[in-house]
């Protein structure tokens, strides 16, 4: 975990996110907190991670998501050497789908 990221402000942001109850509340909150481009960038990275996990090629991912190879590479590095945050979320989403 990145210690540089830890701060009272970030803690408060995460507490706010944890208060959200459903997808509609997420839209409402994130549309206020983020610019449209920031939100689209986050969702693009998430889609890239999903496709990398499915063993798709950089070309396939770039064509489908519009992500640059630099973005795909950055996400791939996070999947390989990060804190396993993507993996944690993907596993939870899969469990939820199988219920």
UniProtKB/TrEMBL annotation:
Q: Which GO terms describe its molecular function?
A: DNA-binding transcription factor activity; sequence-specific DNA binding
Against SUPFAM superfamilies, the record matches this protein to: TrpR-like (SSF48295)
Highest taxon, organism lineage: Bacteria
Q: Which PANTHER family match?
A: LMO1763 PROTEIN, TRPR-LIKE PROTEIN YERC_YECD
Q: What is this protein called?
A: TrpR YerC/YecD
- Organism field: Fusicatenibacter saccharivorans
């Amino acid at each position: 975990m990145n210690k540089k990221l830890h701060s009272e402000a970030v803690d408060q942001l995460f507490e706010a996110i944890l208060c959200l109850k459903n997808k509609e509340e997420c839209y409402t909150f994130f549309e206020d907190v983020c610019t449209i481009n920031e939100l689209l960038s986050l969702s693009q990275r998430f889609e890239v991670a999903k496709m990398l996990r499915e063993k798709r090629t950089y070309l396939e991912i770039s064509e489908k998501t519009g992500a640059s190879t630099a973005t795909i590479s950055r996400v791939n590095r996070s999947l390989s050497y990060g804190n396993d945050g993507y993996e944690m979320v993907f596993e939870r989403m899969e469990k939820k789908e199988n219920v």
